[in-house]
Amino acid sequence: MTEQLFADxxxxxxxxxxxxxxxxxxxxxxxxxxxxxxxxxxxxxFFSALVYKLHNNMPVGSFDIKDIDAILDPEPIIxxxxxxxWEWMVDYYCCTMGEVYKAALPxxxxxxxQTKVSFNPNFNMPVDMPGExxxxxxxxxxxxxxxIQSINKFLGKKSALSTLKILLEKNAVxxxxxxxxSYSAKVQPxxxxxxxxxxxxxxxxxxxxxxxAKKQQQLLEFFLAETLYHEEKRPNIAxxxxxxxxxxxxxxxxxxxEKEFLHLQEIEVGRxxxxxxxxxxxxxxxxxxxxxxxxxxxYQPTGKPVLLHGVTASGKTEVYIKLIExxxxxxxxxxxxxxxxxxxxxxxxxxxxxxxxxxxIYHSRFNDSERVEIWLNTLHxxxxxxxxxxxxxxxxxxxxxNLGLIIVDEEHENSYKQFDxxxxxxxRDVAVVLAQIHRAQVILGTATPSFESYFNVKTNKYALVEMxxxxxxxxxxxxxxxxxxxxxxxxxxxxLLTPDLYDSIETALKNEEQVILFQNRRGFAPYLQCGTCxxxxxxxxxxVSLTYHKHLSALVxxxxxxxxxxxxxxxxxxxxxxxTRGFGTEKIEEELSLIFPEARIARMDMDSTRAKKAYxxxxxxxxxxxxxxxxxxxxxxxxxxxxxxxxxGILNADQLLNYPDFRSFERSYQLIAQVSxxxxxxxxxxxxxxxxxxxxxxxLLEVAEHNFIQLFNRxxxxxxxxxxxxxxxxxxxxxxxxxxxxLNLAANQMAAKLRKLFGFNIxxxxxxxxxxxxxxxxxxxxxxxxxxxxxxxxxxxxxxxxKSIKTQPNNAGLVAYADVDPM
Length: 823
What we know:
Layout: E1 5-10, E2 19-23, E3 36-41, E4 45-55, E5 70-71, H1 80-93, H2 97-104, E6 116-119, H3 131-143, E7 145-147, H4 148-155, H5 161-169, E8 173-174, H6 176-180, E9 186-193, H7 200-209, H8 214-226, E10 236-238, H9 239-246, H10 250-258, E11 262-269, H11 287-298, E12 306-310, H12 316-329, E13 333-337, H13 345-355, E14 359-362, H14 368-379, E15 388-391, E16 403-409, H15 427-438, E17 441-446, H16 451-458, E18 463-467, E19 478-483, H17 484-489, H18 499-510, E20 514-518, E21 527-530, E22 547-549, E23 554-556, E24 563-565, E25 578-581, H19 585-595, E26 601-604, H20 614-623, E27 629-632, E28 645-650, H21 653-657, H22 664-676, E29 687-692, H23 698-704, H24 708-721, E30 728-737, H25 740-758, E31 762-766, E32 772-773, E33 776-786, H26 791-806, E34 815-820
Parallel strand pairs: 12-17, 12-18, 13-15, 13-16, 14-15, 16-17, 19-29, 20-27, 20-28, 26-27, 28-29
Antiparallel strand pairs: 1-2, 1-4, 3-4, 3-5, 6-7, 6-8, 9-10, 9-11, 21-25, 22-23, 23-24, 30-33, 30-34, 31-33, 32-33
């Protein structure tokens, strides 16, 4: 008798436990850790689960152990290194294996029971087939396939899974083939010479027979010239290519196929774009870059993460390229993480120029099948493989087979943090752990380090490599702090511009130079207000004012997307005196067109770049000097490199400084320094004008002096005093409910329980800045945890309390979760 074997599997569900299934004897020889299997979960659902562990331990309990229904993969689709990484993520980020599985794998590799069942054409139906089974098989033969819900309806049962299970055992139906992959290989029609024309005589006779059918003869001659008689002796040609290049119609081709002079065959082709303009020479590094390159290499044997702190335009990318080149020569893979893939057109072009078709991109805009192909391409070595993957945070979860280097560009960016849904991970920190697992080197690059990373340098966890000068010794920009209050008092403001900024823009335009203006608020005006009673239109779903978008002639909620038309009058007193308050990028664009009517002005924000390729088009137009002034939100701070920008203006620095968050000064410095870095290239120093009503603010003085160290030291003393990161870890407990009173009750109960565990290291419960989003009221409790060995056990206690409060009968409808290291 075969020994019983069991598998613990990971289901794509937010469940804290593993589930154990029996492995039928027929499957035991083929099952492996990391393959997908089909399992029945509950009464009605099938899922594709991942095999996590194989063992002989019979589960204890009074329940039936279900069998695995099918194995989907001949070989594992995840690696042992990934399993180690997932286990770390589960422990660190207070999430479940199912949530990590769901986040990591492309949807086409995660299947659920909306899937189809079909008749197995190789099954011979016996005469004595039970009636219900026979009826179902006949239905499947007639319909081709059906989903489980329609089968339930056809058989008049709540669940037909028992019948399906019997048919599966008899090999009468195919669940796995329909369930196995919503991913299917991409095929393309290719044209071959028919075997009947196997020699020169047969070909001559065929051409002779087509004398009166000139188009057919021309097409056959063209085909032969491009295949058999081509210098490369190609065996086939793509149908599309044949028709386009010959200029002859599909009807003529069909006739040649019918005459059996040619034949058509569909061949699997990849969806991945390996096209490139060829690799260009990688330039030698200058002295400063070479020094940084050598220092980074020195740290490779130590396994220490390296923080590469280089000022804007110091040439960090060229150092990365040299390091990548070295790893590729060793046969290693490289992961290049960027905060937002859609905002890295220039970087991707530079890497493609350096490495040609070895560089591939992975991001959420790809369709499911493309994501699957990149997944498999990363996992398996193929004739054509991407050896460099450029991607946003999800690229850190790909199945690398031989990873040698990870680069985290702009490591300070909070875009690396996943907010919703779980797992709420930070890809920068995941990258550090991933590098340790693979024994690869990880480089965190930035001009404005996060305090956490710089603290890790100070505590000797990370190594520091600095690049203090700009490439070709270009000067850092001149920084000017312009006092808006003083200019307003003296009536010197020109619309939204102080005299300093107005004069600088005017000079730049006269010199045919370019200008970037930064305002971190899109739309025309942040809100409308009644001039009589002060009424402000609010979103019906969220506790936030509606933003006026002039180009839409509408009010829009930036949290839930709710849109409504402009009010005719005040919603309270019916006055028609409705005024716009504040200014967004749309209003700035309009005002500038009045002040500088000759200038070509464009806007870069989420609204203006929604259309496909709109962002790339804007970049091209600005690079080619078709735009004089570019107005934008944070998008203009993201590592753009333009040769002709002489002036950068920050229109409202107060908006950044006054945000109620313990990281607001750190983020203000980073944003201002990053956007300032766009000014000045080649042989000219740039100029940055920071408009503010707080000209003596220490952060503005520090950014004007490029003095990151002073900011860091000052902020660190405050954070240590008040127990904030990086001295303490933060866990944010979020509670949501559609009923405000029930939320308040649950939040107070939760806070009381946490105070018993952690004493005074608890803040809240408190409403966040926006206390209701999409009709959900929410409250937050912040837990401050010491960085010691008790960290993991403390997080487990928090999870236990969350689980406990959710299961209380009076808390039905409550959503609660933990967010570790919130941003």
